[in-house]
Amino acid sequence: MQQIINFLIKNSYKLLFLLLLGVSLTLTVKSHSYHRSQYINSSNAVSGYTYNQINSVKEYFGLRQKNEDLARENARLKEILFNKKDTVLESKFTVPDILSNYTVRQAKVIKNSYSKQENFLTLDRGAFEGLRTDMAVISDRGVVGIIEKTSKNFATVISILHTKNPLNGKIKNSEHFGSITWDGKNAGYVQLIDVPKLATLKKGDTIVTGAQSAIFPENIPIGKIDRIFEEKATNKYVINIRLFNDMTSLGYVYIIENKKKKEQQALETETEKDPTKK
Description:
Blueprint (H helix, E strand, L loop, with lengths): L1 H9 L1 H20 L1 H29 L1 H20 L19 E11 L5 E6 L12 E4 L2 E9 L4 E8 L4 E5 L5 E5 L7 E8 L9 E4 L11 E11 L4 E8 L8 E7 L2 H13 L5
Antiparallel strand pairs: 1-2, 1-12, 2-5, 3-4, 3-12, 4-5, 6-7, 6-9, 7-8, 8-11, 9-10, 10-11
Helix pairs in contact: 2-3
């Protein structure tokens, strides 16, 4: 207390000056409209700037929620489009032409490998959200992979960058198809093999998913033809495909469920085991 008293005595003139200055400024602002308006404008400018900065910070921290909301809305729109005949999905690429009986869900990639021979992704959604084994995973740009396993809240995905995970693919607009594989060398490219030499193709042609898959809808984009090789031993093409997806940078993805997959696979299995089949 003694120190406070000593401080006030030592600085009494300065404090008195500041007090009188404050009183004079207050009286000036109150008695002169011009000064009052300038004061109010200055106060509004300062408070406006402060509120703007606070709002910017709030918006920044709200971006995650906004992104999730947008991804959820995209999934809902994709489901509507996937189940509507003669509809073309208006995104960067056409996905797909005619689809039905598909359910679409959204998820976020929280882990992603792309430098191994057998690569996997982890999603932040699992069985609780309806994800199951053997569901297709795509992004806005094309094929990502297939769900391998699920827990209650997470799912792992076999990436398209996997040397032991062939997918059915075809050359768009020609109906010639083959198997999509990965040679394990470059994360930006996959290969389409077993394409007959009768197929008409050229560099730049689009490769999409084929109709033989019970997991992926037909015509989901995969990539564009980069190089074409001929296998003399098999008389077939091996095609190098540049992926539409940047598999090293994936955010939100969409999980597609074919609600008739089990029925189709059960019928095919029964047919293959039919003893009367010749």
